[in-house]
Amino acid sequence: MRTRLRCLMVLCVLLLPTLVCAQRVTTGPIDEVLGRSGQKTGDVYKVSFPRSDLHVSVHGLAIKPGLALGSWAAFLGTDDNAMVMGDLVLIESELNPVIEKLRSADFDISAVHNHLMEESPRVLYAHYMGHGPATQLAASLRAALALSKTPLERPAAAAEEAAPAWVKAVEDAVGRKGTFKGGVLSYGVARSDAITVGGMTIPPAAGVAEGINFQAADSGNVATTGDFVLTAEEVNPVISELQGHQISVTALHSHMLTEQPRLFFMHFWSVGSPETVGGGIKAALSRVAVK
Question: Which of 51, 209, 222, 225 is most solvent-facing, going by the fewest CB within 10 Å?
């Protein structure tokens, strides 16, 4: 009897990863509906829709899609009972047709606001959340995106690119390694506390990590923007650190409706030397409970 029990326990341990994986959304059908592949990070399947069609500038600096113009969708759960949440980059004329289409599919719209300041043309960001079968959610999202000029064709494979010298300078100043792709150095710094919505834990990759991006500017400088994900007590210490390092705060608002703990998303902008800007970001991160 003891031998049988041991064998049963071993079998359960061996089968557990398979059972867990079977409970995650299947990515292939989502890819087929959306016409592109995403990136799997733990339980999150994230699909990106860069607004490469837009030519947005801030004070003459052309913004790369990866810096601040990336629509995205993060899928969690199972094939039959999934959740999708994300952020759509839209110009003013696209905003209401897109969110009306999402609402007709029972998506919740959780925020509409700016991330940048003094950009041209003006860009708005619509945050959303939907529940249901994964492929149905993907189809509803694609139908909404089709009412904008968001490129929906499968993107060409990105060419390998060597990181320029400014990337290491920023990484040294921030004190963390980032990911360099499409001319943009990106960070997704996870918070140390758990974020839940309706009792479900939201992983950092689903939009609750500190998102910080850099791209090259003129005269050896870099531009930075993104959003700090903050609890109420962290908001003003982070503002002080950013402004003390000549990094402007461009927005402070919510992205979700029922998250616990309550979160505030602070967007920012600065152009300066890699050392100065990176040092300011490092100082701000020191005021946040991150891993």
Answer: 209
Residue 200 and residue 44: Cα distance in Å, rounded? 13
Give me the average pLDDT of each 10-residue run along the chain (291 residues): 45 40 82 96 96 97 98 97 98 98 98 98 98 98 98 84 96 98 97 95 97 97 98 98 98 97 98 98 98 96
| Residue 230 near residue 238, CB atoms below 8 Å | yes
Q: How far is CA 196 from CA 76, 119, 191, in A?
A: 13, 33, 12
- Rounded to whole angstroms, the Cα distance separating 11 from 211 reads 41
Q: Are 84 and 137 in contact (CB under 8 A)?
A: yes
Distance between CA 169 and CA 165 in Å, rounded? 7
Q: Say which residues have a Cβ less than 8 Å from residue 233's Cβ, sequence separation at least 6.
A: none
The CATH architecture that domain 18-155 belongs to is: 2-Layer Sandwich (3.30)
**Which token pair is 143?**
């139908």
Helix-, strand-, coil-residue percentages of the chain, each rounded to 5: 35, 35, 35
**Extents of the domains making up the chain:** 18-155, 158-291
